[in-house]
Amino acid sequence: MKKSTFLIIVLICLQVTVNAQNPQWINYTNGDNINALEEEDGYIWAGTQGGFVKIDIVTGNQTFYNKANSGLSLNDINALAIDVDGTKWIGTWSGGLVMWDETDWLTY
């Protein structure tokens, strides 16, 4: 009886461990502090310590941009501005000013 109970407990633990594993990696940036906000045509752009985030106001879908997946020179964003052409001007802590027209990235 003790062996069967032990075996059942081990099997349950193995099942929980197997189900808890997530085969897909998701990269989240550090958004603890929002340093800048901009609004553009139904989207909110938030500059954070971990990059910047595009948030769809209607659906809530988020797209994260950081040094690893974009042309940002640094993840710590301190300022955001969007000009009349939709070009994003991104001020970083010490990585310069980044211009992004949603096609090309340029760091000044």
Low-pLDDT runs of 5+ residues are 16-20
Give the SSE order as H and E letters.
HEEEEEEEE
Q: Tell me the number of helical segments per DSSP (H or I, 4 or more residues long).
A: 1
Q: What proportion of the residues form beta strands (DSSP E)? A: 35-45%
The share of residues in helices is 10-25%
Task: Characterize the overall form.
Answer: globular
Q: Please count the beta strands (DSSP E, at least 2 residues each).
A: 8
What kind of sheet is the major sheet? 4 strands, antiparallel
Structural class: alpha+beta
Q: What is the mean pLDDT?
A: 82
Radius of gyration: 21 Å
Span of the ends, CA to CA: 73 Å
Read across the widest sheet, the strand sequence of neighbours is 1-2-3-4
